[in-house]
Amino acid sequence: MSISSNEQAVVDAVIPRLLVGGEWRDAGAGGTFPVEDPSTGELLCQVADARPEDAMAALDAAVAAQGAWAAHPPRERGEILRRAYEAISARADELALLMTLEMGKPVAESRAEVAYAAEFFRWFAEEAVRIDGRYAVAPNGAGRLLTMKQPVGPCVLITPWNFPMAMGTRKIGPAVAAGCTMVIKPAGLTPLSMLALAQILQEAGLPAGVLNVVTTSSSGAVMEPLIKDGRVRKLSFTGSTEVGRKLLAQAADNVLRVSMELGGNAPFLIFDDADLDAAVEGALLAKMRNIGEACTAANRFHVAEPLAAAFADRLAERMAALKLGRGTQDGVQVGPLIDKNAVDKVSELVGDAIDKGARAVVGARPGDGRGYFYQPTVLADVPADARVLKEEIFGPVAPVAAFDSEEAAVAAANDTEFGLVAYVYTADLKRAFRVVEALETGMVGLNQGMVSNPAAPFGGVKQSGFGREGGAEGIDEYLEIKYVAMNL
Ligand code: NAP
Q1: CA angle (242 as vertex; 239, 244 as ends), nearest 5
Q2: Which of 178, 269, 325, 460 could form an SS bridge with 420, CB 3.0 to 4.6 Å?
Q3: CA distance 121 to 173
Q4: What's the pTM value of the predicted model, to 2 decimals?
């Protein structure tokens, strides 16, 4: 299916250029790069391909705007976010379609992401006026201790392709609320949602230079000089652990303050006392939301031995019934993966598991025809040495392995360098708390298959990163604490 006129209109409404100091401009060298529809591999449009000097101009604009923006009344900063929240909500349908075109997920899921993305603006609109400090009498009674919170300064923000809008608002919202200016770089695969968002923020009254957007096909060369520029005060990155490591090394040069939202390998534990119906429902959500392309996606299912076979069969039955197709079509529940590399990686992990003795209950092959599809897959009896249990799958594949004790389940769950999220299904309250406390993750879904919530602190431990986005904690990532010792 080729692009329809309605779809073309949504793409054409995006300004495919760089936003620098409030002006939309072409890349200095005039270059562009293509954005394609992963369901067909067809070209959607070309966007400006920034070079290092363009990104430096964006940073210059952010630095120039910082002083005035920090002094801008918090209520007005919040109201800009609130207006942007309203505008995103009003335009949810067209933004969802745009997201589906560039990223592939079914339109209903894009709508859910648009709503989730908007909620970060609503949340941080409210947080902007709650930035406060502390006043205390020194323990010896002689002096006074005052603490104040101030914007950290110009930020560099880098976001991934899998949630092209929400990963942006989760950073832009608190940065705007705190009084920071920024240069943001969306993933080259999905720049359109970010460009649409920037237009909305401009229309909502965000002053020139506060938000600058750089799109590029050479992320490394374009972003490294910014990360190493002494005027930048903060780097916030969401993406793979592999790239996060490189950026941490670059940030070390200037001892740059960083937040890292990196990869995951979420275990989904089902104990023998769990409600199996609820566990299958939760598993489907935790696995198939975003076509399995989520850092929070359940990556491996560890199931109590007596339930393992029944769970695999029931999950397989549900997965087999899901409709695969272009995300714009009615009733489609599973869209394409983002590109050919993603399909190859998933195929490789499934092949490795089967070679080592796993049994394919359903799926285990790419889609037919064009586009980057992979069939929803359940693998049973997956052996402990299969790569699929250790590496981030980022696709619609559910490996199931059995455990014979609570200790073994917790040990398997923690046997990974990642620590973003874990899911636990049990009806036993004491066990629930024992297991939750023993899990080495930043988040736990207890008898539920989704944790994301703008009002909660999202983030990981171990090699899933550090820092928290959302919740009351989210704005602190963009604030410095200054302590004043007063001799009264
Ligand atoms: P990625 O390859 O690490 O890319 C993330 C971002 O970094 C993109 O904008 C990418 O741009 C950019 N980038 C890549 N190399 C860079 C470099 N050398 N210097 C500067 N920027 C660079 O990750 P992805 O494939 O887009 O996203 C999937 C990953 O994100 C998964 O591992 C997932 O778990 C993780 N993720 C984590 C969270 C979380 O909150 N913990 C949320 C969502 C996703 P280009 O692609 O255009 O080069």
Answers
A1: 55
A2: 460
A3: 5
A4: 0.98
